[in-house]
Design a protein that fits this description.
The chain is mainly α and 89 residues long. It has 5 helices and no strands.
Length: 89
Amino acid sequence: MRPNSPEKAQNKRDGESGMITLPEAGYTPANLRALLKHAGLTQQAAGELLAVDMRTVRKWCAPLDSDHADMPHYRWLQLLTKTEEMKND
């Protein structure tokens, strides 16, 4: 990310408003781990929230050079929505 890029400016604004600041844009294993930490969710709790096995979430969180599996985009959006709803409750 460039020092004055729009993404960096957006992340800064989000961080100031109490929203999570993700290390990268979109789904990445690092962003998923950051989101789970921010939401206070374990991998098992995230699996239950999304109705998937905890081993699946573990693979989504795994570094790319290990036993990694890409998280489907719709699941990423679903998790973002559900964690936002949890925050608003």
